[in-house]
Design goal:
The complex is a heterodimer of chains A (about 400) and B (about 280). Chain A contains 9 helices and 20 strands. Chain A is of the alpha+beta class and about 400 residues long. Chain A has 2 domains: about 240 residues, P-loop containing nucleotide triphosphate hydrolases (Rossmann fold); about 130 residues, Nucleic acid-binding proteins (OB fold (Dihydrolipoamide Acetyltransferase, E2P)). In chain A, the strands form 4 sheets. In chain A, strands 6-7-8-3-9-10 form a 6-stranded mixed beta sheet, sandwiched between helices. The longest helix of chain A is centred in the middle third of the chain and has 18 residues. The two termini of chain A are about 45 Å apart. Chain B has 12 helices and no strands. Helices cover about 75% and strands about 0% of the residues of chain B. Chain B is globular and about 70 Å long. Chain B is mainly α. Classes of the chains: A alpha+beta (about 400), B mainly alpha (about 280). At the A-B interface, strand 6 and helix 2 of A face helix 7 and helix 8 of B.
């Protein structure tokens, strides 16, 4: 049973702030995913949990025990590295048994020959051998126990790394982008394997990735990070449907959420020349009257119709535009449309894409240059302040 | 397709270079099996004469070659073991730790390689006299080790630089102490380089002459290099005996090299490719 609590955890490298005041509560048995782009501090945070990096300030608790001052081996956490970090000079069996051998290690094990004999003896003892065999069976590694890591494929090496973590039966599993060195097909298979492992073994998992698909499919909760700050901490569904700010909205979803510039006027959302009735769910944001806002709407909440098609159904509105790009992705097509009377938000690089993305089922016959009307279903739309990028919620005033 | 004529030229070049390298060894073997009457004949004997193999029996009987070889082996193996033991930890520290004066220390280690042995003989002699290390094989091992440790430290540092840090971190998480990481993980991973470094230290100890000649005077503690040189006299030099001892002096070194050769080759290419 292990819950993790991070209180005001920060990390500085000289004057550079890598992690800034992170507070997280991870319940026992949870699968927490630390998600974010490269350099956002997610791996640093994981390494601080493991004890591989010191904590500049704040506290880390495992259950009721404060662990941030303890060495890595005393934290009862196992770590799976991106590069597998297997011991190349040891067989798979010895790699998996190594943490168990270390538990019984005596100083004289350093003496050549005598140490080798003692380590072999521990490895062959029934309790260690049984545990190693059982772990190998779970991960389908039984046939490879006497092989060396260099003779294994990437997926097999990753399973050995998982085995080395599992055999310790730790309270917490920490995983640092363990699938990013694998090819796409193997990654999908291993993703399912790790999820099953979590269900079977139990324990608390903290998993670092920059891949939102991994995060959405594996995590029970996600902490999305940027520049050392947690942007949002919630379930995958919360993060997808109710992004806390435009950064989260853009990060999650492929293609990402469309952000269309507009303003709230007289209880209506005004996008360019079009006026949309404020949906019931967004009524709380009516206080933002007159202020510039961004309407966040997922590509799958938009549908395409022929130009000039009647659009104003209940809770829906149509916007005129021109198709600029069509991408066919098997079961669905992604259509980029340049809106005629409304503009979209600047992206992270400061460029104005000026387009919205729409996903349609099947193979779309549209071609670039076609005039279309875009019908928006606002039932799951969200509003953001254009000034701060924060989501508008009930009772929250816009920043001046 | 390779042009046949350029292929032939290549083969010829290889054969010439090979002959240049092996002929002195062949000549040594032939001379060791030549009668003393034929040593200075007008037409040199190009093939070994097996009937002269008693040269070797005579050499064993009338010289202390076995004792010299034993002493050389003690000095070479002692130098090798001590050098490796003393070099591993500094190499690890230079590779992994950040500390004040690290660059300076590295330079000083290199600088010791610029000093010729002959320059250090007199101060070493004075120090060894005070420490009662003169005329001991232990003293000789120490003197040789002082010369091999810096170079081995640098070789091992290069190899440890190539060991991924994650492996050490994995060992830390698995419960290894720092010393445990060095001995259980890093040393086995850099074993090929360790073998290469051992060869360097062994041959330094095996071949060394200046210290062995100066710091050891007792007949029983002579090393083979000094023993061999003792035959070169002002009036006469029994060349066939010198060559017989030369063969005996070379053989153990060749055997040692053959034993570790597999690792040396791997060590010299370790880290050169991403793997």
């Amino acid at each position: 049973m292990a819950s993790i609590k991070l209180q005001h955890v920060a990390k500085h490298f000289g004057t550079k702030v890598a992690i800034s005041d992170v507070d997280l509560d991870v319940n026992d048995g949870e699968f927490l995913v630390l998600l974010g782009p490269s350099g956002c501090g997610k791996s640093t945070l994981l390494r601080m949990l493991a004890g591989l990096e010191t904590v500049s300030s704040g506290e880390i608790h495992l259950n009721d025990r404060r662990v941030d001052q303890l060495p890595p081996s005393a934290r009862d956490m196992a770590f799976v590295f991106q590069s597998y970090a297997l011991y190349p000079h040891m067989s798979v069996r010895r790699n998996i048994a190594f943490p168990l051998i270390m538990r019984q290690f005596k100083w004289w094990f350093h003496i050549p020959l005598i140490g080798g004999w003692a380590k072999r003896r521990i490895e062959r003892s029934p309790e260690v051998a049984d545990l190693v065999e059982k772990t190998a069976r779970t991960l389908s590694l039984t046939e490879m126990l006497d092989r060396y890591p260099r003779t294994l494929s990437g997926g097999q090496r990753q399973r050995v790394a998982l085995g080395r973590a599992m055999v310790r039966q730790p309270e917490v599993f920490l995983m640092d982008e363990p699938l990013s060195n694998l090819d796409a097909k193997l990654r999908t298979a291993m993703r399912a394997e790790i999820t099953r492992l979590h269900q079977r073994v139990g324990g608390t998992f903290v998993y670092v990735t920059h891949d939102q698909v991994e995060a959405m499919t594996m995590g029970t909760r996600i902490a999305l990070m940027r520049d050392g700050v947690v942007q949002q901490f919630g379930t995958p569904r919360e993060i997808y449907t109710s992004p806390a700010n435009t950064y989260v909205a853009r990060f999650i979803g492929t293609p990402p959420m469309n952000l269309i510039e507009g303003r709230v006027e007289g209880g209506m959302i005004k996008l360019g020349e079009a006026s949309l009735p404020m949906p019931h769910g967004l009524a709380a944001a009516a206080h933002a009257a007159g202020e510039p806002i961004l309407l966040g709407i997922r590509p799958n909440a938009l549908t395409l119709g022929a130009a000039g098609a009647p659009g104003q159904l209940a809770g829906q509105v149509s916007l005129a535009g021109q198709v600029s790009l069509v991408e066919h992705v098997g079961a669905e097509s992604v259509v980029a449309v340049k809106l005629s009377h409304a503009s979209t938000a600047h992206d992270e690089e400061g460029a104005v894409p000026g387009e919205i993305m729409i996903t349609t089922q099947g193979y779309s016959d549209l071609e670039p240059g076609d005039q279309v009307s875009v019908v928006a279903d606002l039932s799951e739309a969200v509003l953001f302040s254009r000034a701060t990028g924060e989501r508008l919620r009930a009772g929250l005033a816009l920043a001046a | 397709m390779t042009n046949p004529s350029s292929h032939a030229i290549r083969i010829a070049l290889i054969l010439i270079l090979l002959s240049l390298a092996t002929f002195p060894i062949y000549w040594m073997v032939v001379t060791s099996l030549t009668s003393s009457a034929n040593l200075f004949a007008d037409t040199p004997q190009m093939l070994p004469d097996p009937a002269q193999s008693f040269n070797y029996a005579d050499t064993f009987k009338h010289t202390g070659v076995l004792v010299w070889l034993k002493n050389s082996a003690i000095v070479a193996i002692g130098t090798m073991v001590l050098s490796i033991l003393l070099a591993i930890l500094p190499a690890y520290a230079l590779s992994r730790f950040k500390f004040r004066g690290k660059g300076g220390l590295g330079f000083v280690l290199f600088a010791t390689q610029m000093l010729p042995e002959a320059m250090l003989v007199v101060p070493l002699y004075a120090i060894f006299t005070n420490l009662a290390l003169l005329n001991t094989l232990g003293g000789l091992i120490l003197a040789n080790t002082a010369f091999t440790v810096p170079v081995i430290t640098w070789i091992l540092k290069g190899a440890i630089d190539g060991v991924p840090l994650e492996i050490e971190e994995a060992a830390r998480v698995d419960g290894c102490s720092r010393l445990g990481i060095v001995l259980q993980v890093v040393v086995p991973v850099v074993a090929p380089t360790l073998a290469a470094a051992s060869v360097i230290a062994f041959f330094h100890g095996w071949n060394e002459y200046v210290f062995a000649q100066t710091l050891v005077s007792s007949q029983e503690l002579r090393t083979a290099s000094v023993g061999l040189a003792s035959f070169v006299g002002e009036l006469s030099t029994p060349i066939h005996t010198v060559m017989a001892i030369g063969v005996m002096y070379t053989l153990p070194a060749v055997l040692f090299y053959l034993m570790v050769q597999r690792y040396v080759v791997a060590g010299m290419t370790a880290g050169s490719v991403k793997g």
